[in-house]
Specification:
The protein is mostly helical. It has three helices and two strands; from the N terminus they run H-H-H-E-E. Strand 1 and strand 2 form a beta hairpin. It is elongated and about 45 Å long.
């Protein structure tokens, strides 16, 4: 899920509370949000590149 969705769900949308809980400054949270970071299994992930779509075999 998008980081903004994660913060909304688990921190009632409070970016400062999320920052405190994770030991970073609120500005860092904004950088992550602006960088389109996502959370997968409680791990913050940054996008590296778009992948070429592949057709699934039936």
């Amino acid at each position: 899920m998008k980081l903004t969705e994660y913060i909304e769900k688990y921190y009632d949308g409070n970016k400062s509370a999320f920052a405190r809980a994770n030991g970073v400054l609120p500005q860092q949270v904004n950088n992550w949000i602006n960088g389109d970071y996502v959370v997968v299994n409680n791990v913050l992930c940054s996008p590296r590149r778009d992948l070429v779509p592949v057709e699934l075999k039936k």
